[in-house]
Amino acid sequence: MATIANAADNTNITYTVSFAEAQAHYADVEMKVTGLKQNTLELKMPVWTPGSYLVREFAKNIETLSVTANGKPLYAQKIRKNIWQLNTEGIASVIVKYRIYAFEISVRTSFIDASHAFLSSPDIFLYPGNMLHAPATIHIIPYKGWKTVSTSLEKVNGDAFTRYSPDFDILFDSPIEVGTQDVFGFDVDGVKYEVAMVGGGKYDKERLKNDLAKIVAEEVAIFGENPNKHYTFIVHNALKGGGGLEHLSSTTLGGSRDAYATEVGYQNFLSLAAHEHFHLWNVKRLRPIVLGPFDYDNENYTTNLWIAEGFTAYYQDIIVRRTQLYTPDNYLDVLVDDINQLENIPGAKVQTLSQSSYDAWIKAYRPNENSVNTGISYYTKGAIVALMLDLEIINNSKGKSSLDDVMKYMYNEYYQTKKRGYTDAEFKQGLEKFVGKNLDDFYAKYINGLTQVPYDKYLAYAGYKTTNTLADNNEAYLGITQIPLTSRVIVATVQRGSAAWIDGINVNDEIVAIDNKPLPETANIIADKKPGDKIEVTVIRDGLAVVLPVTLLKSTKVKYKIEELPNVSAEQLAVRKKWLSLK
Asked: Are 152 and 176 in contact (CB under 8 A)?
């Protein structure tokens, strides 16, 4: 009998994917496994997709799984939520057939209809247990009218509809788009880039090719190499779209088909593309040590998503600035938006940055009505920490180094030389090498602690400061947000420490009157009130009217802007020039 170590060496795995009922959102998969020599074979479906830290239970979409061997049915016993076990004693090959329902629109899940199929591989392909390193061939039989396949997987004998993956880690990191997408491309230093536009849109191909090429070139310059021979942008354009998911040699982006025609919308798309493309180094290769090889059956916990995602969120905009596609003022506006977002979240006083990373599996992708009070985004605060470290390094080195040097050093040291991921301590050591000092206090305050970020300290290195434009505001504040797109005032969230929080207004309450008067038609239901005023709020809760006495408080909302300091020194201007890529 073959051992676990060499079982995959003797097997041949092929898939045929067809779409007899694409209009009903189904794919039919036939999986052939030959060369078997073991007595037991397990068929597994991943429970999550790398880059999206949530167990999504992909096996729930499998229907009518059947197995045959030597032309006869073979019993497949389900032994776990995502595992089927076969008795293969004396059996050299099996044919597995199953159907997959795919109707979730996102960059991380498969979607099929009559117009196209997006196959996010972890929720499409079963794999043989203990054979993650085995190669596989995928043959696609297109639905009527579908003519094009876009994926980073290599063609077999030049056939676009037959693709090869050297192992399952690569297959699960290679989404496949099949349909009538608009495909165009560009080269950067000999690396071929393909852009596959799905769903139409008001985009300018030539402008996109030129600007994406500039972004790619800036990112390659940081790391000194492009590890790919080719790379694929799969872009799903919808009425309202967004989000992205990184892969080893490709990415899937969500775009708004009309947004390309506006400068803000176009810049947002470039920022998203810069983010996901930067991931081909930061997280796909330079990665926290637990993020590969992957355990596809369980969560893969790390405290370092603030590096993997937060640093990437920082670079997405500074890269666009370096291409000169953002003006300096554009970039500072984007930066201050992050600051305002973090400083207006009560959860910033509750959850640390390392905790937000570790708890991504149970919190980040499962937000509820109280999330704003209990947590933060490791994207947002991670980007701000990257800003702090970048300015510290530039200042301390007198412009000779920057965070770029940390990223390149860590990439060379761990991905290229040690060929493994980094630990938390190792990344800290890499930062200290270029910051030029011990970062124990920095980590204690801003990574593992709840100390408020001293923005002015770090921005001053470049001759800037923050000003809270709402510092003198004396508006009364109730402390709720409303469910949008309805004329009724139904409470969506209640902010920690606000009047609503203290005096018992609940999420899902419908506010119908203030001081026994029906609500005004204005959006601000307490427009004529002041801090300290006592009011009676009538709500409908579970079908019953409840009257709540509420004492209004002063709004704690901040709105910063970034301004230049007076009498900026030559040293500060030098830091600014390095940081903002000023000519």
From this structure: no
Give the model confidence (pLDDT) of 285-343 as tens digits: 999 999 989 999 999 999 999 999 999 999 999 999 999 999 999 999 999 999 999 99
Q: How buried is residue 448: exposed, middle or buried, by Cβ count under 10 Å (0-12/13-18/19+)?
A: middle
pLDDT exceeds cutoff 60 at 2 = no
| C-alpha–C-alpha distance, residues 290 and 399, integer Å | 34
**Do you find a cis peptide bond into 227, omega within 30 degrees of 0?**
no
233 closest CA partner among 269, 279, 265, 273: 273
Q: Which residue has the tokens 């009130």?
A: 529
CB contact at 8 A, 211 and 233: no
β-sheet bridge partners, residue 44: 83, 127
Tokens 């290229």, located at residue = 416
Decide which of 2.60.40.3650, 1.10.10.60, 3.90.650.10, 3.50.50.60 is the CATH code for 7-178: 2.60.40.3650
Distance CA 275, CA 226 (A): 16
Domain spanning 181-280, CATH class: mainly alpha
Find tokens 């009047």 and name the residue: 499
Please state, in angstroms and rounded to a whole number, the distance separating the CA atoms of residues 129 and 183: 36
Which DSSP helix (H) or strand (E) runs through 90? Answer: none
Report which DSSP code applies to 257.
T
Residues in the chain: 583
Which of 225, 578, 224, 582 has its CA nearest to residue 393?
578
Helix (H, G, I), strand (E, B) or coil at 422: strand
| The residue to which tokens 């040690």 are assigned | 418
Architecture of domain 476-554: Roll (2.30)
Q: What is the pLDDT of residues 168-225, one digit of tens each?
A: 999 999 999 999 999 999 999 999 999 999 999 999 999 999 999 999 999 999 999 9
Task: Report how far residue 399's alpha carbon sits from residue 85's, in angstroms, rounded to the nearest whole number.
Answer: 60
Please state which CATH number belongs to domain 282-462+567-583: 1.10.390.10
